[in-house]
Amino acid sequence: MTQLRQEDSKVEVSGFEAKYYDTLMDLITLGWYPSFIRRAIADLGLKQGDRVLDLGAGTGRNALLMREYVGEEGQIVGLEIGEEMQRQFLRKTGPYPNIVMVERRIDEPLPYEEEFDLAFISFVLHGFIQEKRDAIIANATRALKPGGTFAILDYNNFDVDQAPAWVRFAIRKVECPLAEDFIRRDTRKMLETHGFGDFSQTEYLKGHIRLLQGKKL
Fold it and tell me: Which residue range or ranges hold the Methyltransferase domain (predicted)?
């Protein structure tokens, strides 16, 4: 079995791909992504005044959508290390003082302790080796208030060999090897190990993508 390496990941994008990330996502998905991500953010169940930790915040697209729900009383703290992503995030969210950008790696210890109602990670967790996934989940655990929610929007757990041809192509030819490793693992058990429970799940794209939410018990 091939040893998976963090160097094989594709989640930390740069250059042309980073500069035009949102546009490329819209084009690659034939216009499906904007309505999908808006629906997924709505499914988070955010409330006015909630504080959100956005792990791997990207261009700020998700933060702006979440702000529609948390309002001016809430706050969104986005963590991002990509220079181009940071520039886009700051440009898009600049008018809103309750959206904050922090340059920090999400797989290294974070300074937050029981401060947030929701920790959110979108299509990022699959791009890490398992050791780093556990570190990210541990960071979310510490950052959340008791009863807070960790929400993972990413690939569902399914049998890649039995998936439709277009799904197998996307996972094995477009994605990095870490994605298939993530799909084959039990994400819910990962969270249970870190003290999460009371799970809820919303599925998209015929069950191949899901929003998995767990409460910090």
Answer: 47-156
